[in-house]
TrEMBL record:
It comes from Zhongshania aquimaris. Keywords: Isomerase, Magnesium, Membrane, Metal-binding, Phosphoprotein, Transmembrane, Transmembrane helix. This is phosphomannomutase. Residues 320-333 have a biased composition (Basic and acidic residues). Residues 731-803 form the Alpha-D-phosphohexomutase C-terminal domain. It comes from the Bacteria.
Length: 816
């Protein structure tokens, strides 16, 4: 025993030495591993990432340069074709044969009207001896360059295009002979092309137009600042000696730069893992492992056995019962908008009174997800509108706001609602600026122009004439569902302030028009038919597009709240039949239709096609992302899956979101998206605009894109891929039942191998298509939509949805 003890004691130093050596090796391994991590991080940060960034910048700038060159080439070719077409006019040729043509002649005026965007147009007479003849009108030309251009055109018998400086400004002239007796000059200020280029480039790149003659190079269009000249892309143009130079801007570089935060986090995580793992080994060198006990198992009791699964009808009934109990229990906290008990009747006593004496009641269902809406003569009577005015005014004042803008559409009930609402507002002490009969986007613009973020728009939007409603903004934000319910709670509690507000009037129409025509460039005059549907855009839309340079044919552009020609909803194709006929009759380039309050737009092409809103979004998104690489584009759950695919292909970031204008505007502000759109026709521009839905501005931007690219609407549609899709399907369901049905559908679906998107109802993404079911926020209905690679695939998805929906509620069979 003594021997064994002494052997044990003798081995302790050896063990200690072995542990010490192990610990040293562990420390060295940790230091070496952490050093490798930092070396790799340094190499990626200072060598690999800059090289990759330069490559990304070069690729993006090259793509933009190719696109810019194509657009500029097409614009020049179009202008050249228009000049050539004018030179072939037989009337002009006959007049030149007879002698001189003065600047005030009918032909000269016609030439000027043909080029409203030009700075100057001239018809030059050429005598028998050419430009040297004594009857030559070369004195009417600006300088020797224009004389030389005329000589070249005579000698070469072709269109001559050159840029030159005159009185310290750059001009670009197109010269083409008209027979042997004359020529026409069309001269543009270089600023015209500069504005076009800047509009195309946005804030992604800066553009320079260089003209080279022999050994001399001049900047015809020079950017205010040039960044990153080392990655400049140069592209020759079709005009001899012209070159386009593209420089990426700071924001493009920043959008392409990788965020090093993730790299740092990975580095820190690696170091932490290395340190912790080595620390564990280090500590274990002192420890003796012990056996682990396995946990004991306890049998399940009979109480844990599952109850039989209830039927779908029982689940739905239970949900409806629970919803009713929950609304009753939580009425004072946050009552739900649908199915709650009616509010107490309102009195006209002074604000702050808690007297619940009644003269009429407020319809609970009128307070919807993002606006107030109902049947005008029953749900929005004078007493209700007076109370809503008091509630909105009190809420605005509680937020330290003192002024509110007010607008209305042309519905027959709008003047009555307007007066009752004004009385309620003024009674709280808030000042009201009345803008009269305007479109909804004009009210949003007025908020920006007048810097007043509080507004009420009285409008029934696209609904039938007996409906009306209110779209409300406070502090430059559309009200959320909770905000709408807060207004309802104020009415219920009669929690109103008291005061005497002032009412003034203002006009926003011309300022709205001037703002758009100062922003949008339409490269050539188009013939368009405007169908205002007797709505709020009737007076403003024709004037706007005429000032943009279009030939406008008005259709139903007289405000009439009866809507005698068709319902004010242009997204229903049957409502566009008259517009289709007018486009065909007049040979128009495009038909444009607006809804009742002008925040939605629909298009009819020259061939009579009616693209859906997501197809329009594809055209608009392609333009935005091309000019703003990496831009985020927002769209709702009803849109085609082709839309996000296109956005990604163009280099953008697609984001799917909820339906509803207030939800979309909030998400636009949150994400910084430059463009957003709904399948219902609401399109939101943040690029060069303010982020609200505006049918007129969207139509103007669409015309800009088409004319600058040289495409027709039909060309743009032909370039898009296509899938089989259904229209939006509406199934009437009572407001108090629709949300419970959707919840039951979601919980009981068993779609195998499918992706589920539940941001708004349920969208089920299959490999060959998708289906959507959701509760409408604007009416007592469930909405559905489907899209697939083929008709049979779509029918299969529809049948799967139908089968589950009818198991939940067999009474819906008639609607399906």
């Amino acid at each position: 025993m003594r021997k064994k003890a002494s052997e044990t004691i003798a081995t302790k130093p050896a063990v200690a030495q072995r542990f010490s050596a192990n610990q040293r090796d562990i420390l060295l391994s940790a230091i070496f591993s952490i050093g490798l991590v930092f070396a790799a991080f340094y190499w990626i940060q200072h060598y690999e990432e800059p090289r990759a960034l330069t490559q990304r910048i070069d690729t993006v700038t090259s793509n933009i340069a190719d696109h810019q060159r194509g657009i500029v080439r097409d614009a020049i070719d179009q202008l050249g074709s228009r000049v050539t077409e004018q030179s072939k006019s037989q009337e002009l040729i006959d007049a030149l044969q007879q002698g001189n043509i003065s600047d005030d002649s009918v032909l000269s005026k016609n030439l000027k009207r043909a080029f409203p965007e030009a700075q100057d147009t001239k018809i030059i007479y050429i005598g028998n001896q050419g430009i040297a003849d004594e009857r030559s009108e070369t004195l009417r030309l600006r300088n020797n360059i224009e004389i030389d251009m005329l000589r070249k055109s005579i000698e070469q018998q072709k269109l001559i295009i050159e840029a030159y400086k005159h009185n310290d400004e750059w001009l670009i002239s197109f010269v083409k002979t008209a027979s042997k007796r004359g020529a026409i000059y069309v001269t543009f200020n270089a600023n015209y092309f500069e504005k076009m280029l800047n509009s195309l480039a946005g804030n992604a790149v800066s553009v320079e137009l260089i003209q080279t003659y022999k050994s001399r190079s001049d900047s015809v269009i020079k950017p205010s600042a040039i960044a990153y000249p080392n990655v400049m892309q140069s592209r020759p143009l079709s005009v001899p000696g012209w070159t386009l130079q593209i420089y990426p801007q700071e924001n493009t570089v920043l959008s392409l730069s990788s965020d090093s935060t993730l790299l740092w986090l990975i580095c820190v995580l690696c170091v932490a893992l290395i340190a912790s793992s080595h620390a564990i080994f280090f500590l274990r060198s002192y420890q003796i492992p012990v056996a682990e006990k396995s946990p004991s198992k306890t049998p399940k009791s009979d109480l844990e056995k599952a109850d039989p699964e209830p039927s779908l009808e029982q689940v739905l009934a239970k949900k409806l019962s629970a919803d009713r109990q929950n609304r009753t229990a939580k009425r004072d906290n946050f009552p739900a908008p649908d199915g709650a008990p009616p509010l107490p009747e309102l009195s006209t006593e002074k604000a702050g009174s808690k007297n619940k004496a009644a003269t009429s009641t407020i319809s609970v269902n009128s307070f919807r997800a993002y606006d107030i809406r109902g049947i005008a003569e029953t749900e929005l009577d004078d007493n209700a509108c007076f109370a809503i005015g008091k509630s909105v005014g009190s809420e605005a004042l509680s937020r330290s706001q003192s002024k509110l803008l007010l607008g209305r559409d042309g519905r027959l009930s709008s003047p009555r609602i307007h007066e009752a609402l004004v009385k309620g507002l003024l009674s709280t002490g808030i000042d009201v600026i009345d803008l009269g009969l305007i479109a909804t986007p004009m009210l949003h613009y007025a908020c920006q122009d007048l810097n007043i973020g509080n507004a009420i728009m009285i409008t029934g939007s696209h609904n039938a004439g007996e409906y009306n409603g209110m779209k409300i903004s406070l502090e430059f934000k559309s009200l959320t569902s909770q905000d709408i319910q807060t207004l309802r709670q104020r009415i219920e509690a009669q929690d109103f302030t008291s005061g005497n507000g002032n009412r003034t009037s203002d006009s926003i129409e011309q300022r709205y028009i001037d703002r758009i025509i100062g922003d949008v460039v339409i490269a050539q005059s188009l013939k368009v038919v405007i169908d205002a549907g007797n709505g709020a855009t009737s007076n403003i839309a024709p004037a706007l597009f005429e000032e943009l340079g279009c030939e406008v044919i008005p259709l139903f552009c007289e405000t009439d709240g009866n809507f005698p020609n068709h319902a004010p909803d242009p997204t229903i194709e049957s409502n566009l039949s008259a517009l289709k006929a007018a486009v065909a009759e007049h040979g128009a380039d495009l038909g444009i239709a607006f809804d009742g309050d002008g925040d939605r737009v629909a298009i009819v092409s020259a061939q009579g096609r009616c693209p859906s809103a997501d197809q329009l979004l594809m055209v608009l998104a392609n333009d935005i992302v091309t000019r703003n690489p990496g831009a985020e584009i927002l769209f709702d759950v009803k849109c085609s899956r082709l839309l996000p695919e296109l956005i990604v292909d163009c280099g953008g970031r697609p984001t799917m979101w909820k339906c509803g204008h207030s939800y979309m505007k909030q998400k636009m502000a949150e994400t910084g998206a430059l463009l957003g759109g709904e399948f219902s026709g609401h399109i939101f521009y943040k690029d060069r605009w303010y982020g609200f839905d505006d049918g007129m501005y969207t139509a103007a931007r669409l015309l800009e894109i088409l004319t600058l690219s040289g495409l027709t609407m039909d060309d743009a549609l032909d370039s898009q891929a296509s899938l089989v899709s259904s229209p939006e399907i509406l199934i009437p369901v009572a407001d108090e039942r629709k949300f419970a049905i959707i919840e039951t559908f979601t919980e009981n679906q068993k779609f195998a191998d499918a992706g589920l998107i539940n941001i708004d109802g349920l969208r089920v993404e299959f490999r060959h298509g998708w289906g959507l079911i959701r509760a409408s926020n604007t009416g007592p209905a469930i909405t559905m939509r489907f899209e697939a690679d083929s008709e049979s695939s779509m029918k299969r998805i529809q049948n799967d949805f139908k089968e589950l929906l009818l198991r939940i509620d067999p009474t819906l069979v008639d609607s399906l």
